Amino acid sequence: MRRLTRKKALTLVKELDAFPKVPDSYVESTASGGTVSLIAFTLMAILAFLEFFVYRNTWMKYEYEVDKDFTSKLKINVDITVAMRCQYIGADVLDLAETMVASDGLKYEPANFELPPEHRLWHMTLLHIQERLRVEHSLQDLLFKTAIKEAPPAQTRSEESPSSLRACRIHGHMYVNKVAGNFHITVGKSIPHPRGHAHLAALVSHDSYNFSHRIDHLSFGEAIPGLISPLDGTEKVSPDSNHMFQYFITIVPTKLNTYGISAETHQYSVTERERAINHAAGSHGVSGIFMKYDISSLMVKVTEQHMPLWQFLVRLCGIIGGIFSTTGMVHSLVGFLVDVICCRFQMGIYKRLDAPPNVPADDQNTLPTENFSQE
């Protein structure tokens, strides 16, 4: 009984076979078929190889959601060199609630405004990257994926005496409230004032004002590799002593998840403006560098994605099956056309072979005439 059941099961399975088996005696191998097969197999191998590189590639997916974090602090990372002595300038933050944030995390170091050759080379490279980022936005995705950890050359202390150094490097970080604010560098050190915010600038003459500056780095949040801020490498030279530089910054919270790093940081866009202060001409204001920032209510989630394995297999099967079927149809069509053309020529040959020797084919139905003599 078991053997009969197995035989019935095998018979049923054989009847369900949807792939017909053609005997070898019915198969004819031709040179044209072999050539088409070689071409088809070559195309399959090339496209499958290229598809594997597509499978290995990744892309960045951008999603947006509302930022619900209002209680955390915002970290400001600063590295700015101003062409004035350190005792003449002061940097601090005044937020929207008129709360002055202490700048204890910032350090003031005397420096030269001109860069040494190795630092100038890095600065020019950074400016070139910034220029390409404005044109090719997909370059930022590449920087995210590669997570470049190359740092600029460390700025060493100058061997000159501090009295001969006429610039000041302000670097460090501060933690501020997550509200709009104004980070500024202006003349004089900040002093507490019951009616607002003030800088002690009475002891500094207007002739010594020079707010030419270079922003080596300015970012918000945790610094992550692969993220180049828009103001990194910016260098401004003041044409006159009494000048105001303004940067209007919009900060966007960002969550970055790649195969190399996972972090929460902030990106920003910036609009620049500068003008000379001339009260006689109606251009009022305070000389200095003012960075007014605002925080967006939307958060950007940047995720690195990869093609699923099942999708890769489906695409691979489509490539192999499509090429196999297409080349088979093309081969059959070409063979049909060749047969039609060859049959016409062969029919003409057969007609010529049926004609008598030394007699034109057109004269086959014409009988020759003979002269008979009567005896």
Task: Please tell me about this protein's structure.
With 375 residues, the chain is α+β, with helices and mostly antiparallel strands. It folds into 2 domains: 29-57 and 307-355; 62-306, no CATH class. Helix content is 30%, strand content 32%. It has 5 helices and 15 strands. Strands 1, 2, 3, 4, 5, 6, 7, 10, 11, 12, 13, 14 and 15 form a 13-stranded mixed β-sheet that branches. The termini are far apart.
Describe the secondary structure blueprint for this structure.
Elements: H1 2-15, H2 31-56, E1 58-66, E2 73-82, E3 89-95, E4 100-101, E5 106-111, H3 117-135, H4 138-146, E6 167-177, E7 181-187, E8 189-193, E9 196-200, E10 213-221, E11 234-236, E12 243-257, E13 262-276, E14 288-295, E15 298-306, H5 309-354
Parallel strand pairs: 12-14, 12-15
Antiparallel strand pairs: 1-15, 2-6, 2-10, 3-4, 3-7, 5-6, 7-14, 8-9, 10-11, 10-13, 12-13
Features:
single chain; 13-stranded mixed β-sheet; 375 residues; 2 domains; disordered C terminus; two-stranded antiparallel sheet; 15 strands; alpha+beta; elongated
Summarize the structure.
With 375 residues, the protein is an alpha+beta fold. The chain folds into 2 domains: 78 residues; 245 residues, no CATH class. The protein is built from 5 helices and 15 strands.
Number of helices: 5
In quaternary terms, these chains amount to single chain
What is the 3D shape?
elongated
Number of folding domains?
2
> Biggest β-sheet, characterized?
13 strands, mixed
